[in-house]
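Sequence, structure tokens passed on for absentees:
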Amino acid sequence: MHEDRFCSEDVICHCLKVTQAEVESAIVTSDEPSLRCVMRMTGAGTGCTACHRTIRSLILSQCPPASSSPTCVIR
């Protein structure tokens, strides 16, 4: 019997099976977190694009708009 390595609730990008943990890791390790950066680092969002809103929300949760950090941007 085949078992997935993660629960379906953990998957952000269903096209490429990218998990929330992978997206969050890309956000916190990036010098300039953005949707484009997460797409490049994880592949998430490069399929049907339905996960773009969720990825942007995760970026905002890691780098709120009121942040004084010049590297936290949404593109």
About this structure: The two ends are 42 Å apart (CA to CA). The domain at 8-62 is CATH 1.10.10.1100 (Arc Repressor Mutant, subunit A). DSSP finds three helices and two strands in the chain. The mean pLDDT is 83.
